[in-house]
Write the structure tokens for this entry.
Amino acid sequence: MDSRALRPNPRTPRAAPLTLLLSLLVGVAAGACVENPAFDGPPLDPDSINLPPAECKPETVEPCYEGPEDTVNRGACKAGSHSCSVDAQWSECTRQVTPVAETCNGLDDDCDGIVDNNFEREGAKCFIGKGACQTTGTWRCAEDGSEALCDAPPPPRQPETCNGLDDDCDGQIDNGALAGTGQACDTRKPGVCAQGTTQCAGGQLRCVQSRKSDIEVCNGLDDDCDGQVDNQCLSVAEAAKLKAQRGH
Ligand SMILES: [Ca+2]
Ligand SMILES: [Ca+2]
Ligand SMILES: [Ca+2]
Ligand SMILES: [Ca+2]
């Protein structure tokens, strides 16, 4: 414990009764009448005892501001005014604007010197989509000020076709069911290798071979795609045996 706390403070009121008692004793001993100095002067008005100290000169009006000092008269922030009452107390500060959270509204609400910081700048150019699907607009503040929105129109959507472009603007080129694909076609190769189906590849419809060349089997087809039907052909069983020997 702090030893100073144990020492009596000479200025504490406890010292007063002792002084008073001594002076009374001296006065009684001297046969004199001692007046208590506390009863000097006119009687006190009980209402005036607890009045706060005067803050101002009554009836004066002055500017006032309760926000951080460096924000007054910056951005949307401005000082208000207060007036001095007859009992020398300042009234509430009225009409002041102190910092609030920044919203998208074209004003510097938080009074840091930057309008709409943390939002895209209203009126600046903005884009939606990529490539042929891109459209242009400008950033606009949402009505509730919570965000900036790009007012670019939606991209012009077309049915997807095989052309190397993202026609329907879903972010993928030549995807989905494309017109003209999945149809039987001729690869212009001999034998069974002529069979193909149309597919979209590299932005173009192509006839992609459906059957690979195989061992020539005696079946009335040109299985090995050499342009001759059943030349040196094998029976189905022989062909199967040969395939097994080859390991496939
Ligand atoms: Ca700001
Ligand atoms: Ca703002
Ligand atoms: Ca396309
Ligand atoms: Ca054949």
